[in-house]
Amino acid sequence: MLILLFLFLLAQDSAQAGVLPPRDDSSQSPQCPNQRTVVDITWSCVATMFACTWISVHPNIPAPEERWWEAIIKRFQYMLWTIFAPEIILFWAIKQWHGARRVAKQYRHYDPNWTVTHAHFLQMGGFMLYDGDEPIGILSYENFDNLLEQHRIPFPSITKREIMDRSKSDLLAKCVAIGQLIWFMIQVFSRLAKHMPIAELELVTIALAFLTGFLYFFWWEKPVNVSTSVPVHLLMRHNSPPSPNLPIDSGRSQMSTFTVYDEIARQFTGPKKIGTFYAIPLTSTIEIRTILVASVVGTIFGALHCLGIYKPVFQLRNDPSDLINFDFWRPFSLAVALIPGLIAVVALLRIWNERAQSKLSTHVAGILTVFAFLSLPFYATARVGILASGFLSLGSLPPGAFNTITWLSYFPHV
């Protein structure tokens, strides 16, 4: 029914909206009620990017002594990671998704009410080990499991509701953010269906919104912006080693990409904070499949940028600056699509080699891995170039980019 309503409204708008007469290039702020301004375009893109990069990322719990301004800086770091390397954030989210489900099943014999949210809470640094009144350090999954098997800690008795009470976001907030993403995607694809030009920044935003949808899915049951951990007190036992000798490890990221990052951060935070990109360790098979899923989604993410290679999408004028901008857009969008695709091919070869045990595929996968590693600087350059091109092109949009689709204004959006 909703699809039929969408098609009906699209047809109605097609009948009402005509092609506006050519607009004077010197006019940068159209005043027609059925037109939008550069400010309107920029604001909708920025608001959607904010939902993509700030709200969708579910960080691990910070150190107890971390101040409010340090937390804001950390959120900006996550935002930059999501803008310039969204596939890596997606890889982290998928790892946590797999780890949370495995641990939720593992500990149900301790507590039948143990949920995926509990497991997420564990791997985001939700449990702090105490020796009496003295905090020793955050319990990573590895240390939590070891101490539990040794009967040196009690199994936590916190409920899912108590965990979610610590979360700074609820279902309504997530639905509002997702609603903004859906509205933006409908707007852009409706314009393409009607052969109306879109801004380069809109195409950048639609690609980011697509990938962010996967972040919301994989982190749906993970609490958001929890700032305090739950104490787990060490049980007193005879003949137990002294507390300082406990194998407290605040949890490394388990991802080679972030190992150096975590080791540097560890020098400043100590054991009272979980690793910035920590996730419960997975088997090598699941790890490779996680890389495959993240890289395939990343390839589609990059392919969405390649839509801009088709000139009617932007409907660029014959202005030299527009053509130069377009010449940069093509190699940048191809790089963003092909490099994750290369990583996906490597992952597929490694999965196939697990069964075939082929030396040839092992060598080919090794060579492609080297190429993929060497191409990462080009990927980073392409991401920066695409984002810069999107903002720079706002100063020379074609007249048709300011036309609006009337019925979309009836949907709530930012």
UniProtKB/TrEMBL annotation:
The keyword Transmembrane applies. Keywords: Membrane, Signal, Transmembrane, Transmembrane helix. Residues 1-17 form the signal peptide. The chain crosses the membrane at residues 78-94, 171-189, 201-219, 291-310, 331-352, 364-382. This is Uncharacterized protein. It comes from Gymnopilus dilepis. The lineage of its organism: Eukaryota, Fungi, Dikarya, Basidiomycota, Agaricomycotina.
